[in-house]
Amino acid sequence: MLGTPWWVWTLFLAFVALMTAVDLVVFQRKAHAISLKEAAAWSGAWIGLALAFNLLVWGWLGPRPALEFLTGYLIEESLSLDNLFVFLVIFQYFSLASKLYRLVLTWGILGAVILRGIMIFAGVALVNRFSFVIGIFGALLLLTAVKLLFQKEERVDPDRNLLVRFARLFYPVVRDFHGTRFWVRRRDGRAAMTPLLVVLLVVSTTDVVFATDSIPAIFAVTRDPFIVFTSNLFAVMGLRSIFFLLAGVLHKFRFLRHGLAAVLGFIGTKMVLEPWLHLSILASLGGVVVLLAGSLAASLLFPATRKGKRP
Question: Mind listing the pLDDT tens digit for each residue in 166-190?
Answer without folding.
Answer: 888 888 888 889 888 999 988 888 8
